[in-house]
Each structure stands twice: as structure tokens, then as C-alpha cells.
Amino acid sequence: MGFAEALAAGRLVLDGGLATQLEAGGADLSGELWSARLLRDDPAAIVAAHAAYLEAGAQVLTTASYQATLPGFARAGIPAPEAAELLRRSVTLAREAARGEAREAARGEAWVAASAGPYGAMLADGSEYRGNYGLSVRELAAFHRPRLEILAEAGPDVLALETVPDTREAEALLTALDGVGVPAWLSFTIDGSRTRAGQPLEDAFALTRGVDAIVAVGVNCCTPADAAAAVPMAREASGGKPVVVYPNSGETWDAAARAWTGPAGAVRVPDGAALVGGCCRVGPAAIAAIARAIGAEPR
């Protein structure tokens, strides 16, 4: 069964924060490459983190490529051919975990979502929470296209165009996605009823209306309350597409201090969401609770 067919058949459980689980396992993610560094230095840690989410009940694994880009790797001294191989490896590692855990548990199927984070993630300065990079749609599309092509070559089930703070970047991603040949979901990071760059969410979600390559639209990397409120808006503005929701724990990222502050909230499963999981600071225990809430037992 393909990803779109599985999505049409019922709700799917996404994983939680990959960096959250990697850090819980002792990984140092303090550098600018963040979890993408481990694609080169410790791929086994990535497989183990994926496996922990599968064991908790996740049905969709998101690759360690959120902050992995050709320019970002180049800045770290990694040449383009090796950088492309590391991007492909992110998909291979998730597939390795999915096949191993699914085969061992002998139940169901697990899908791989190749993560493509926003331009701001490469900057490693919190820009993904602001948007407004000063780049044109054309420039942003040129940035995203090579990575989407490389990830698509590796054979994921779906592309996760995620944590998008700005409708201009969403337009660029939709342009870059054209002809890639892999379906995608598009999820915005939001503040209340607006994108992080301040645009109305209705306008953001409406960009996906009639775009067949987008199989789901929604929000991530936001508060649980904002995520729940966005569900009906996303469904209506997109013309009825399935809605993807994976908020943070409720804590707030302090980019200057590079630390999370504030209390974590309770796990919630918003009504009407077709893809449900967690983002920053959401670990396997919370994903297991989500899986139980929607009837997908942990593995």
C-alpha cells in the first residue's frame, strides 16, 4: 500500500522529535549541522532513535535531513558529492529501521518521510521561527530543489516539507516540488492564526489547493493549542486535504541561549487530523500515548 492510500484508509501516527530522542541517547547536537552531523559520524544512533519511535507505535518515520543541505554541509567542509550521499543516507537509515522493526514485530507497515526543513534551519540561528529571509521565491526555490531531487532519488514514501514559517517559502517549495515525482505534505510553523512571518493561515493553507503532489497540509513546531485550532482551517482552506499535525511539547525555544524553557503540556490528539505526532521535545512516551489514543497500539 502506498502512503497516500494508507492516509486515505485511516489516521497515521507520526514519530516525535528525532533530535529529542538522539539527545536522550547521549548525542551532542550543539553544532550547526545539528542531527545531520550524525549521518556522517554516528548513523547507528539515528537508526536506534527511529527504532524507539517505531516501538512506541509510530507508523511514519521522519528522516534526519531537516537541517541537512548542500550549502550547510559545504560550510562544514563536506564536499557536494559526499553531502548528496549523506542526504540519501538519511532515507536509507530510516528505511533500515522501518524494515527491521516492522519485520521483527510482524505487524503493519512503516513509511519513511524525507524531511526538508526551511531555509532558516540551515542558518542555525532561529530564523525558521521568523521567516522573512530577504530572499525571493525564485531564490528559495533554487535553494530547495537540489535537496528535494536528491532525497527523492533515495526512494522515500513522502517528502515532509516542514516547519515552513512564511508563505513565500511555501510557494518556493511548491515550485521546487514540481516534477520531483514523490508526494509531499506541507506543514507550517505558526503563532496563533498566522504563520511565523505574520501571514494569515488561511492564505498559507490555500496555496496547496489543487496541488496534487501535496497529500496533506497542516502545522508543526508550534504549541499544542495552536495546532488543534489550525486543523479545521487547514482542511477548509486546502479544499479538503488530509491534515497533518505535530506540535511541540509546549516548551519554548530560546535561540540566543540555545535552550528550551517553560513547561510541557499534555499530549493531545486534535479532532479531524489524519497524521498526528510530535515535534520538538516530544519523545517516544508521548508518541505511545498518541498511538493508544487513536487505536494504534505500540509495537
Automatic annotation (TrEMBL):
Cofactor: Zn(2+)
Pfam families linked: S-methyl_trans
Positions bound to Zn(2+): 221, 279-280
Molecular function terms from GO: methyltransferase activity
Keyword list, A-Z: Metal-binding, Methyltransferase, Transferase, Zinc
Keyword Metal-binding among record annotations: yes
Record flagged with keyword Hydrolase: no
EC number annotated for this UniProt entry: 2.1.1.10
Coiled-coil regions listed in the entry: none
Residue ranges of domain Hcy-binding in the record: 1-294
GO biological process: methylation
Name of protein: Homocysteine S-methyltransferase
